[in-house]
Amino acid sequence: MHTTVLLLAADAPAQLLPARQLMAFTLASHIILVPMGVALPFITLLMHYRGIRRNDPTALLLARRWSAVMAVQFAVGVVTGTVLSFEFGLLWPGLMGKWGDVFGIGFGVEAWAFFLEAVLIAVYLYGWRRLKPRTHFLLGLPLPAAALMGTFGILAANSWMNTPRGFSLDSAGNPVDVNVWKALFTPMFGPQYWHFVVAMLLTAGYVVAGVYAVGWLRGRRDHYHRLGFTVPFTVAAVATPVQFFLGDSIARKVFHEQPVKFAAMEIVWKTDTHMPEYLFGRLHPDGTVTGGIKIPQLDSILAGFSPDTEVMGLSSVPASDRPNATQATIAHWAFDLMVVIGSVLALLALWYAVVWLRHRRLPASKWFWRSAACAGVASVVAVECGWVTTEVGRQPWIVYQNMRVAEAVTATRSTTLWIMFGLVIVVYVFVFGAFLAVLLKMRTRWRLADAQQGAGSPVEAPEADTPYGPRSSAASVPSGSSGSSGSSGSSGSGEGRP
Amino acid sequence: MTADVIAFVLLLAVTAYTCAGGTDYGAGFWDLTAGGAERGKRPRWLIDHAMAPVWEVNNVWLIFIFVIMWTGFPVFFQTVFSAMWVPLALAAVGMVLRGAGFAFRKASRRLAGRRLFGTVFAVSSLVTPFFLGAAVGGIASGRVALGTEASARAWSNPTSLMFGLLAVATTAFLGAVFLSGDARRFGAPDLVDHFRGRALAALAAVAVLAVVALFVTRTDAPHVWYGLTHGMGLLFVLSAAAATFATAWLLLRPPGTWVRVTAVGVVAAAVLAWGMAQRPYLIPTSLTVADAAGAPSTLTWLAFVTLVALVIVAPAVVLLYWLDTHGELESLTDADLRRGGTEPGKSADGG
Ligand code: HDD
Ligand code: HEM
Ligand code: HEM
């Protein structure tokens, strides 16, 4: 009680705002790369398998090109991820100092999964030229499993923050009797994990397919574009309805495990039965809702399959223990947007499936291809929205009902944090801008090469042009003084090796 | 008991990061000092190609260190990150710039772009180890304690300065030794000698700085000084000295592989000596291993996780280094990424 009153006072420490902004910004940036990190290897391996199985050089070419993209993307994923682990200490020392030994172990699993992933990715990326095709493919196979392991660690930690378990508090309020197993497998873990994994799969699928959908719209409709579109899009289309189902079940889990968060997501003010559902709309501090579309009874039905289900409202807990009206509105909008996107994507997948089942071909409508081109961006937006729902809906708790964000934050002065935030923004704009530029340039070069190839003009000597250039032979060492001819060796296999 | 084991695992992880990550940072150091665009072209080429397949793996060690810190010794993690705010924040920024600069440099064709990314990569390769070293110096000299707030004093002091410089020199030394070996592997004999000379110079710098650092700790970090001059700490100091002489001797002879082993020996022994000298403290003389230890069951699990890591990750890392040093890893070229380019598998069987 005392602490509640104490913290109710509006004087949250000044450093809280910049710390949160910094955390949110860096996480939101990192998460853009995660779908590619988790699911692109899987999709690439599928394509690779097809190439080997059907002896299809186009499929192998696609797999090789995707792995070149993987190289750059993985590098950016690693550095932005490392920043996050620094930030745990730099921004939230109180969280780690008190709870690190309760929920930190998941990250241990993550760390060695990343190790494995980094090794396997390196072998896969650099193994194309010299390893035997079979060996190369087999060495790539454990990659998706390693990615799933890494995801396990992070989501175990995050779901623990939502539904903390596996400890008891001593008289001083410190965690004792830690049960690691219970702390890893908390109630929110299962739903969050599967919802997340499928989200990654469908996001990566739509993003990759979107690239070829754009090509298709511009009239490039060869085998290469057809294949580049079909494989990832099929993966995503299969995942989408699953995601719909999983999303429904995670929402119900939130309703049971974190009723206050659920109230924020649905902007429910007073505990009652026969709750209406608002699509969008805005919650005001006095509990009124303006705007939005009101659908009577639906919220209760969704939460418990019956209009008689009682839904807990925000006002059932003290103001200090719940998100404020603005935070609730943010979580609500984010949630609704995610659901809208998920529903639209499900329709798109349905369209694809129906045309395929009836005509055994790709849809012909321009609108299908336009929507497919946008689906990638939409699913990234859905991922961001999902996290905003999770994180903002949990406010003011960093460890749900056990530690407030304000108790966890660093004591560093807010000015320092703001400066740091500014610096990080500049750095990230640079990094992500360069990342995008590199990808676009790669695409342009490949397109050029394909056009030349099509026109039958000779192909010039291979050059280092992916970020990690060739490492074959002395022949391609740029010659010392006459720096004009960068790379001269053309096949370069073997002769430079000791 | 378990806490001691975990503390030792932490020390080993720090050692591994110093060696693996250090080699990586060192490559950046030599990139910075390689000279103008024309003169530095060949060393930079070598650096790009030697680092590419392994740099991510080298850097995951740091994540492992953090995880052991916050899971095994939460209070230690909290204390260090609260007190060392500025150097650690700058190190984090440095890491982003470094990784991004490296990855993008090869991608840009225009000289201006390559210069920009290259400079970013090289400068941050210098700054990052310095700040990490300075933070460690602050710990070794006991300038942080539970509740210490972030202040410049914690990391701008003689020990921190020496540790920072020593970190930079060490990375330069490791980088040069490994690049010299890579040059041999890539068949660039002139670069072998180029980096051999630099390795010797860097080794001399490391030796001088280490001796100075030793004497700085005498007044500035008495607990560590005592540890370094007695018992296990002394043993490792002597091993480091022996390895230094062996490395110098090997560097003067025709190039071989053993010099890598002794070079890693120098650095590993030095880090272990520091760790031994700190016993039984994580932060001399305010926080012992036992005081900082997390929940006993967590520590047991952490030991288990470490064991699994050893069983699963070690063979994988060995495989990577083996493939790498046997020239099996080679990145794709434009031709491979072109339509109808040679099929990878076919050409591989031939070569
Ligand atoms: C492509 C991405 C995507 C799509 C289409 C959906 N979601 Fe989602 N959702 C995520 C991506 C995502 C996510 C980013 O992966 C989250 C954030 C945290 C998490 O575990 O998953 C998430 C979280 C999340 C949460 C919050 C869990 C919490 O607070 O802990 C709920 C209730 C839902 N989702 C429900 C849905 C529903 C009902 C959908 C209906 C179509 C849906 N999601 C589609
Ligand atoms: C990767 C996707 C994620 C995104 C986009 C995300 C987003 C956010 C956002 C927007 C906030 C600010 C909330 C606010 O105060 O308004 C936040 C806070 C935070 N998140 Fe997440 N989050 C993600 C995953 C995680 C994970 C996996 C963890 C930990 C394991 C985590 C830990 C935290 C912490 C410690 C805070 C600060 C405390 C707080 O403000 O609640 N987040 N995150
Ligand atoms: C807030 C906590 C987070 C931390 C501390 C963190 C840390 C890291 C680190 C250190 C890396 C680089 C690993 C390497 O060197 O290989 C990384 C990349 C990665 N992260 Fe995060 N991360 C966080 C959030 C997330 C979330 C929410 C996910 C989703 C499950 C995620 C999934 C990944 C994946 C799959 C990679 C592999 C790299 C890639 O392919 O992009 N991370 N992360």
UniProtKB/TrEMBL annotation, chain A:
InterPro entries: Cyt-d_ubiquinol_oxidase_su_1 (IPR002585)
Subcellular location: Cell membrane
Gly residues bias locations: 489-498
Transmembrane annotation, as ranges: 24-47, 68-90, 102-126, 138-161, 193-215, 227-246, 330-355, 367-389, 417-440
Composition bias, Low complexity: 469-488
Family to which the UniProt record says this protein belongs: Belongs to the cytochrome ubiquinol oxidase subunit 1 family.
Name used for this protein in its record: Cytochrome ubiquinol oxidase subunit I
Organism: Streptomyces amritsarensis
From TrEMBL, chain B:
Regions crossing the membrane: 83-104, 116-140, 160-179, 199-216, 228-251, 258-277, 301-323
Location within or outside the cell: Cell membrane
Keyword Cell inner membrane attributed: no
Broad class of the protein's primary localization: membrane
Cleavable signal peptide: none
Residues in coiled coil: none
Membrane topology: Multi-pass membrane protein
Top-level lineage group: Bacteria
Key words of the record: Cell membrane, Membrane, Transmembrane, Transmembrane helix
PANTHER family to which the protein is assigned, alphabetical: CYTOCHROME BD2 SUBUNIT II
Family to which the UniProt record says this protein belongs: Belongs to the cytochrome ubiquinol oxidase subunit 2 family.
Protein name: Cytochrome BD oxidase subunit II
Organism name: Streptomyces amritsarensis
